Amino acid sequence: MAEIRAEEQTLAISKTFLIKPKLKPKARTLPQTPESKYWSSFKSTQIPNLISSISSLSFSPSPPHPFAAAYSASVSLFSPLSLSDGDVSPSSTISSFSDVVSSISFRSDGLLLAASDLSGLVQVFDVKSRTPLRRLRSHTRPVRFVKYPVLDKLHLLSGGDDAVVKFWDVAGESVVLDLMGHKDYVRCGDCSPVSPDLFVTGSYDHTVKVWDVRVEDSRSVLEVNHGKPVEDVIYLPSGGLIATAGGNSVKIWDLIGGGRMVHSMESHNKTVTSICVGRIRKENCGDESMEDRILSVGLDGYMKVFDYGNMKVTHSMRFPAPLMSVGFSPDCRTRVIGTSNGIIFAGRRKGKENVESGGGGNVLGFESISEPERRGLRPTYFRYFHRGQSEKPVEGDYLVMRNKKVKLAEHDKLLKKFRHKDALVSVLNKKNRENVVAVMEELVTRKKLLKCVSNLDADELGLLLTFLSKNATMPRYSSLLMGLTEKVIEMRAEDIRSSDPLKGHIRNLKRSIEEELRIQHSLQEIQGIISPLLRIAGRR
Amino acid sequence: MMMRGGRSLVSSPPAFSNDAKKLLVCTSNTVSVFSTATGLQITSLEGHTALVTSVVVVPPSSPAAKVLCYCWTASLDGTIRYWDFSVPELMKTIDIRVPIFNMVIPSFLDIPAEDKGKHRDLFAYVFTEDTKETQEKTKALRRQIRKCNLSKSRLVGRLILGETKKPEVLTVSPSGKFFGIRNKCKLRIWKVPDQGSEHAAVRKITLHHTKKITVIAFHPTQRVIAAGDVTGRILTWRGFGNIAFAGNNGVEKQKLINIQEDKPGVRDNDDADSCTTWHWHSAEVNVLSFSSDGAYLYSGGKEGVLVVWQLDTGKKKFLPRIGSPLLYFIDSPDPTLSAISCADNQIHLLKMPSMGILKTISGIKTPCCCPEMCKGLGNGIAFDQTAGLVALRTENYCIQFYSLFDDRGISEVQVCERNHQPGDDVTVIVTAVALSVDGSLMSTSEVKLAEEGIGGLVCLKFWQAGSQNKEFSLSTIVYEPHRDAGISAVTFHPSGNMVVSSSFGGDFKIWRCNNDIIQSDQMHQNFSWTCHAVGSYKKRPMTAAAFSADGSVLAVAAETLITLWNPYKNVLLAVLGDTLTPIVNLSFLGKSDNLAAASCGSNPQLSVWSMSKLSLSWSYKLRIEAVASAVDSSSFAALALLPESSSETTFKGRDGVILLYNATNPVPTAIWSVKKAMGGALGFLQVNPSSVEEVDGKTPEVLLAYMNGDHEYVVFDPYCKDAHEVSISQKEGLSALELKGQGGQYGYASIYGELPEFSEKRPETPWVPSFPSERPWETIFSGSSHNLPPLTNLCSAFLESLLEKRTAAVE
Q: According to the record, where are the WD repeats (chain A) (predicted)?
């Protein structure tokens, strides 16, 4: 019997309770959805001091995905790698334009860049040498957009204020097709990601037309009416859907279904100026999947992320200026937003460096030495005596748990020894105000707080007064601390009068109280305004 | 059927059996035998008819005799009984006809083995009350120490060893050579005479101290005695009685020599070599005990810390934060086991060198005292109707769950994470506890008192029980639910997902439970409570709240008015009023459309309101302590306090009555008079067929539990009268008699003065009075014929009562 009893678990008769701060209310909804976490993980850097508004942004399809920004009569190229180092100067600038650049587009291999300007000229540049290789002149009015097809390296699409959409043969600097049909300025267009022959254009005549170069008589295949002047149009990656932006709304259309509107997103307050496709990495049950989103920016300064699978706005972000253009890099690591006052908000996400460079690392690490043979441990070796201690339990093993040791903070230990003043001083030194308040509350329940206050020496009293001046007006603690402040001043008036640093603390305290009083006054004013309104609303 | 329980386990020191596997605990009229391995009750020794004051286990005369289980018990009923507690069986009864406050049997060790043929008498020293000579003697000295010859079953002649004013505790030395008492500032020690003869002269010495001595202990081997006093000092006299107890002739000579000798610390030329003092305890010492080898001294007192002193060096070891004043420390024959009894009715079995708790024998916790400002908030007792549990708040900021059917503590929930210091002022009080109908949810409220106006806090806490075990875990804390106003009542909605808390600050809040069940990890339910609605009525303090049985109506008492609300939409439905004084208790009466309200103060009142007519049905001028209504039927029970004048004369010290009413009828269907009703509680319990023995082949529908101010309780069937009296006659010996039903149980006539309004209706009361008494056959057949039970039942009860009487007579 005695042996069995020896193995019995005994409970400690005395429980030790830590002095814990009061619990905080838990938010009923999560503060951040995983999605908004993703979008806020883009570390924002500003690229300032560009002249006038950023009319267009384009990412190179080839890694490391540099992007070009068109502003005023120049185009600047930026490297995202230098962005993450905090370098915001452009890597190169093309300024051989006679007028304001309206639109730019990279070819699918990222070697050529097409740019259109308001003089009606479309130029094709070599990205590296920055020399204009071709000048395409046919538009009679300002060109508003230029676009390289996704799957085609030889042709180019452009449209302008002459309401004509032109399909160019770049090499010969000649127009292949003049596509008539729009009745107002053509402002935007996009090429299908799945077919080299299909593209859409949007115009201020409220319509978006789908063109097919294979159609004989140069007429549009399909036409949808957005209802407002169309500012931007994009193909969604499937090639079957397009999104159009115009007025306050972004609309999604099903082209395969004959131009049916799928959804209209109307959460912007002002005109939506630009949209692009963003991608989000989702991790479901271990495997990663990419989901596409529509990023839209508007003159109201908001960027919205729209999930067109669930037809929901999943994130929105505010910027301090009207936004003109948006771009998202194909590797999902950079998103740039151009404003009307010459600032680019570039966001870059941390992530794995490119796969290519990783491959290079493999080549280097190929000749690594094979692991040495493991020798059996001998009692001559120190580790012999520690062997097996870090062994993890196998499933089915019977675990004998050791009682967790309660970790006592310094003030806990002092309170256990009934050294109340020392506990208060120690927790005041620790600068954690929740713990300070918790210790004060514990002292109140022991009816020792005022005794502690009366026993503090000058330095410690200064500590206490600093704490009070900082926290007495905080609503969470004010019920306790205001009363305490009053008592402290009342009890220690003599000491405070005789010491200059303490007087300084009292001045700070007074200042914070006055501040609080001001806030209360203004709040009461607001309440005075609101309460009749509420009364009226309640009467209905 | 009738169950009693909630008795004090700590009225007298317990005793270990010789193999340390059993612990004998005096529980009012019985001695309960607990297993030390499991902490559960094995059996009980029933026979005494008054409080058992001492239990002495017969030590083994040889190692082989360790298995023998014999003990002597002494009781206030004037008998000493000898038991074999393994069976259990009563072996012998000695009736000395005077109440025994204490008994020691020092001379077990002197008894030679029986087989030697020379049989010597066994003597006990008993502390009795002198009942006869009250006239001649001064009243002061009526308690006497006398010697009792247990072998011959009588007190020894006129031998009176000592007399004191109050009954004191006799302490015997482990060697059996000395015994002593404390008497104010003096210690009296007697030497047990060597011979077992009756009139051998008993020699005594007296040791003096300047403070009142509270407890004494003898060293097991040496002539050392330790005593604790009211100031917390521990005095140790070494070599006491060297002169007086030395021999017969040398007394005079040694005294002469010793006068010159240096005797440090010894006062008044006392008969001791030296006296040393230790002082650690801040309040009086209640526990003092030497370890069995004599190397250590255990001491404890009001502050709830067990101190282990190394006797030679005076070094201390502590077992702190026990949480309750210590009363007794008992060493067991097994060196690894000992027991401490605490004032909160718990006996902890300690594993000895490490002093960890092996098991706790948990009695019902004593009511906690709370300061004046929190009185009248209800008594903090909630009944779990389905499981037969009662939840009580305890002094160490816990809620104790106590099984009424099993008579043992089930679990404790720590409401405030604090250690209780028995000596300190009460600054944190658990004011209310409420249980949902199914017992899976609990809500508590607590108040932290402010220190000179700063730092006061009111908390409302919601708890949920785990799915399998009854362990409650905290789900939500609400700080200052009604700003700084105190909570007057907390009540659960019948469905369990709604709670109303009313406050003296003039509003009530309805809290709703949002339970998001997380399916993935084994159905873990996560409850969170949020405020659903706030209501107030003319800024009046809200004093009580109750939900109707279907949960569609919420009644909240706004002082003297009753406001009725729709709890879902928070719409005021109706206002009932007025009572004369503020209502403290509201209760819907089962499924009926009646509401009972009890108000206290100068004009106490019990009123029943009809919900269909929105008017007062009937009312009494009674001071109501508690109201309980059965869930299914329309009857309800009220515990009324009697005015002091009537309780002295007609009720023989009983100060309360339980009245059982039908809601529609102002005439009570039954009345029981009870003791210690102040602070009592009532609760109806649903009957779980497995837990309740069947009576006459049928189980009672519902049981009524009454708990008195000392937390002793009785559970009985309020409707079944025949079964009631039969089982009383069976269990008469057990009775703790907090419910003195035997004589005046249906003595409703004596309450006439209380109920003037309906006095003319009295004679029509439908029930039949019956008086279970010493001779049940006289009362079994009384009453009208249609109310008699079937003949078969009567016959067996009748015969049984006859049989019982015979056997008692034989003894």
A: 136-178, 179-221
